[in-house]
Amino acid sequence: MAKTKSPPSLSPSLKLWRSRKLRRAGKNRKLVVQAVEYLVSGGAYFWTGYAVFAFLWSGLGWSLWWAKLGANLVGWTVNFMLQRYWVFRNPHLKKHLGQVTGRYIFITLVDFVMDYFIVYGLRQAGLTPYIGQFVSAGFFTVWNYVWYRWWVFPERLPSPRHPARKHVRPHHLT
User: Fold this and answer.
1) 44, 98, 152, 159: which could form a disulfide with 103 (CB 3.0–4.6 Å)?
2) Helix axes 97-124, 64-82, angle to 10 degrees
């Protein structure tokens, strides 16, 4: 019977390098999946809002302000649910729903004002609001990902400190 040769064992530094490389590959895959989920949920937000805007603007004849606001209210609801519970799902954020929701509302209101003026400005320049929304969506795709990833839905939020408990550093005890 022929004796098979076992593969040589890896040195500790090579094992460490390999484990880091595998961890990095896992993180990169997670980011790619998250980016795809973000784009899908952003598409759901955009097309839902776009359809509502078309109905309110063209169908009911609402002003640009009210049609954008109505469309965004519907889109924001869809977007928050998908971003919070699918794209940036995180068990650590369960206890922080109020804080996360407050951050989402804040950035969404900033977005609404910016979005309105982008679409309004493009309309003044001769572009229809239907085209203006695509231009605006291109900007907000990148803008919102940055805000959502690192501020609205971060991997961890700092734990709240009890106001009665003052944090004392050991080197200040002397």
Assistant:
1) 152
2) 140
